[in-house]
Write a structure and sequence with these properties.
The complex is a heterodimer. Chain A has 14 helices and 17 strands. Chain A has helices at 116-125, 138-141, 166-173, 175-189, 203-213, 233-241, 261-273, 303-309, 350-353, 366-370, 377-385, 389-394, 405-409, 416-432; strands at 22-23, 30-33, 43-44, 51-52, 57-60, 69-70, 75-84, 90-98, 152-156, 193-199, 219-224, 256-260, 279-285, 293-298, 317-322, 329-331, 344-349. In chain A, the strands form four sheets. A six-stranded mixed β-sheet of chain A has the order 1-14-13-17-15-16, with helices on both faces. In chain A, β15 (317-322) and β16 form a beta hairpin. Chain A starts with 21 loop residues before the first strand and ends with a helix. The relative contact order of chain A is 0.15. Chain B is an all-alpha fold. Chain B has a domain at 19-139. In chain B, 58% of the residues lie in helices and 0% in strands. Chain B is globular, with a radius of gyration of 21 Å. Chain B starts with 18 loop residues before the first helix and ends in a 12-residue tail after the last helix. Classes of the chains: A alpha/beta, B mainly alpha. Chains A and B meet through β15, β16, α10, α13 and α14 of A and α1 of B.
Chain lengths: 433, 321
């Protein structure tokens, strides 16, 4: 096992780990965006007034890097219009008023899979995108570019972000489906070996997974040291295999494909039932939440109703985050929906939501030591603020994975990764021209 | 009414590290050395310390106010500079000189170069050297430590020699135990190795400093002073050189100053070795008894260069697509 350099140890806050997932049921309304993945947006296939059923395709596109979008409820389409999601440009959204009957669409039936091609087509049709938080279409990931020789399937169950326990619950509650999914992916992609990486702060999950794969030679379970960002793709590959994904490269460049543990379990259940991705296990936690727990939520459910299901707020929320506290996206409204890749919803009280004031860099080098990509965050911050983008590029700004370790450790509370994001965005936009 | 939510770019949590906490840790770490200084050199040492700390904080406050910048005395960095300056001065220095030194440290070296994090040399050391070249006599008049009459044969004189001075001029050298405890002449806070090491361990435990700079600096001095001994190859007395003079104070508290030391571990190793090498050269091959201050200041000025040549190779090689 190879340890990556740097990283941080934020308080783990796995408060919801031992609570069984509770299914939430049908909300009063669902709002389903036509972009819930990295890649091309889908085109809405329904219009206002249409009736839809659970699992029915309501958005799709011919673009390769994309995934279809399904209705999570049965009901009537009440709106199809653009809306602003947090952290993105306005996207088309389909609003559906559920009828509460949850009638399943006739389209939903187990797929016929008899080849690699039909398997990849089924994965695409399932609407699956990486459930770990990045939302990359899985069928694209499972079909690496020609020439890449992939020999290891890595299952990411590290769950290194504080608070998050949804992957942990997946391992505990759906152990068999996780293993079944891994076997299916290996079977149809021809990968001979699978490694499950999981942080050693989850001994129970390690135990049940080890038990479940006992007797299966090709799958192994690897407890890895608990340290953020251990679950970052490049870090996990390095820890498990010693292979370093080249800057700007893909895991396939070093013979690996990384899948989130919930994603792989979903593959198994889709192949069995044909029910596409319409619901998601979400960790609901944070200092403002009355009853933190894992909730199985229909995709498109407004955040407000998820929090209400968890007993509402015990104090006025100052910040609501989709995802973990280290890399999650803060939300501007509680009317925004749960997305396919939502793995957590955190509500922080006012006090915890405030941003500490920036003070001058004292050159303590904590950011340099914390950076898992071995960059110089303080210098990149300075260069971007001085608009010296070319110099920042020479210092490998594009290699940053935006994990936020630098900002977490900074005693001067410098907004380094925020500057780096601005710099990367600027450089990317100017490259395209 | 819609609940107004706060938006910000991740990460949404921070460690509890803060600049003022780090500075407070340095102050705490310096308490044993401060106490030892006051114990060995008496109440005048205490007054010197008070004058330096108060005038540094005051100059920080006034300069920032004059320059219409935010008030920064609560980050405690000025207090640290004041205390470090005092520990680097002769205990019975005329107090107006201490004020001049404080002015030079805070106003000239720190604030005029942009304040905290921007100075190119360590303010306390810069001020000490400034005083040394300006008031050479007063800056080299040492107080006899309490209980040390038997060694120096003098009572409350101001012309006793430091251990390194004795090495140059000849005379009875103090014993290791006295040097370890601090019962020798010297700058206010440099004499007690025990007190300095206790504080250094505290800083290491609190992760305020890393081991590289002090260990490599001190190790280099020990090794080279042993190899380059007075009676030929490997006849030196490394323990004497480690305990004598300002080495421990410099290596643990001054060379580790964040602003004026390199950002990478590799850089820190080069820098610390340079400090050690220069210190030995100053001590053995110049007519000055001591060279810690000059060595650190010289290496301070080399830090931008060291930083430039020690940029780490990023994970994944850093090749761009």
């Amino acid at each position: 096992m190879k340890l990556f350099r740097g990283g941080v140890h934020p308080p783990q806050q796995k408060n919801t780990a031992e609570k069984t997932t509770v299914a939430m049921g049908v909300p009063s309304v669902v709002l389903i965006p036509m972009v819930q993945h990295s890649g091309a947006p889908c085109r809405p296939l329904v219009k206002k007034g249409d009736t839809v059923k659970v699992g029915q395709v309501i958005g799709d596109t011919d673009a390769y890097v994309s995934a279809p979008i399904h209705s999570s409820v049965s009901g009537t389409v009440t709106k199809v219009e653009p809306m602003l999601l947090s952290g993105s440009r306005p996207v088309m959204c389909v609003e559906i008023k559920p009828d509460g009957l949850q009638q399943v669409s006739e389209e939903v039936k187990p797929p016929v899979v008899d080849s690699r091609e039909s398997f990849l087509a089924a994965v695409r049709a399932s609407g699956l995108t990486g459930l770990g938080g990045a939302g990359f279409p899985t069928h694209v990931k499972l079909n690496p570019p020609k020439g890449a020789r992939v020999d290891i399937l890595i299952i990411d169950a590290a769950e290194c972000e504080p608070y998050l326990t949804s992957d942990y619950r997946e391992c505990i509650e759906n152990t068999d489906r996780v293993v079944e999914g891994i076997l299916q992916v290996m079977k149809w992609t021809g990968i001979q070996k699978a490694m499950i990486g999981i942080e050693d702060n989850k001994p129970k999950a390690v135990r049940v997974l080890k038990q479940a794969v006992s007797g299966i030679q090709s799958i192994s379970v690897h407890p890895v040291p608990t340290r953020y960002p251990q679950g970052a793709e490049k870090m996990l590959i390095y820890t498990l295999t010693g292979r370093e994904v080249p800057s700007g490269g893909l895991p396939a460049d070093v013979g690996c494909i990384v899948m989130n543990v919930a994603s792989v379990a979903f593959v198994a259940s889709y192949l069995k039932t044909g029910m596409p991705l319409v619901k998601k296990r979400v960790t609901v936690d944070g200092s403002a939440v009355a009853n933190p727990q894992n909730v199985e939520v229909l995709i498109g459910t407004p955040l407000r109703e998820v929090f209400e299901f968890c007993g509402g707020f015990k104090s006025e929320p100052g910040k609501v985050i989709m995802g973990g506290p280290m890399m999650g996206v803060s939300q501007y409204s509680l009317d925004l929906p749960v997305l396919k890749y939502t793995n957590a919803l955190l509500a922080f009280d006012k006090k915890e939501s405030s941003i500490p004031e920036e003070s001058p860099c004292i050159r303590c080098a904590r950011c340099v030591r914390a950076c898992p990509m071995r960059l110089l965050p303080f210098e990149l911050d300075r260069l971007v603020k001085a608009r010296k983008y070319e110099d920042a590029e020479k210092l490998h700004i594009m290699t940053c994975i935006e994990c936020g370790c630098c900002v977490y450790v900074c005693p001067a509370k410098r907004l380094m990764v925020q500057s780096i994001r601005i710099g990367k965005d600027y450089i990317r936009r100017n490259r395209k021209k | 009414m819609e609940n107004r939510l706060f938006m910000s770019s991740s990460p949404h949590i921070r460690s509890d590290a803060s600049t003022s906490r780090i500075m407070l840790d340095v102050l705490i770490a310096l308490m044993p050395a401060t106490a030892a200084g006051i114990y060995f050199f008496g109440s005048d040492a205490a007054i010197t310390i008070a004058v330096c700390v108060i005038s540094c904080v005051l100059f920080e406050y006034l300069t920032r106010k004059l320059l219409k910048r935010s008030n920064t005395i609560s980050d405690l960095s000025a207090a640290v500079t004041g205390l470090l300056l005092a520990l680097n001065l002769p205990p019975e220095i005329p107090k107006w000189m201490a004020v001049v030194g404080s002015f030079f440290a805070i106003v000239i070296i720190k604030q005029l170069f942009g304040g905290l994090g921007q100075n190119f040399i360590n303010p306390a050391l810069g001020a000490r050297v400034f005083l040394l070249v300006s008031y050479g006599t007063k800056m080299t008049q040492w107080t006899t430590p309490r209980g040390a009459d038997a060694i120096t044969g003098a009572t409350d004189t101001v012309s006793v020699a430091t251990p390194l001075g004795l090495l140059k001029s000849g005379g009875t050298l103090p014993g290791y135990v006295d040097m370890f405890l601090g019962k020798t002449a010297g700058s206010l806070g440099e004499t007690s190795a025990l007190a300095l090491i206790i504080g250094g361990i505290y800083l290491l435990i609190r992760k305020v400093i890393s081991w590289e700079i002090p260990v490599i600096y001190i190790g280099t001095v020990a090794l080279l002073s042993w190899i380059l001994g007075p009676n030929g190859f490997m006849t030196g007395d490394p323990l004497y050189h480690v305990l004598a003079g300002g080495l421990l104070l410099g290596a643990i508290y001054m060379a580790t100053d964040y602003t004026t030391s390199p950002m990478t571990r590799k850089g820190a190793v080069i820098y610390a070795f340079g400090c050690g090498l220069l210190t030995v050269i100053f001590r053995l091959y110049t007519n000055m008894p001591e060279g810690v201050s000059y060595s650190i200041l010289l290496m301070n000025t080399a830090v931008p260069l060291i930083d430039r040549y020690t940029v780490p190779k990023p994970f994944g090689g850093g090749a761009h697509v």
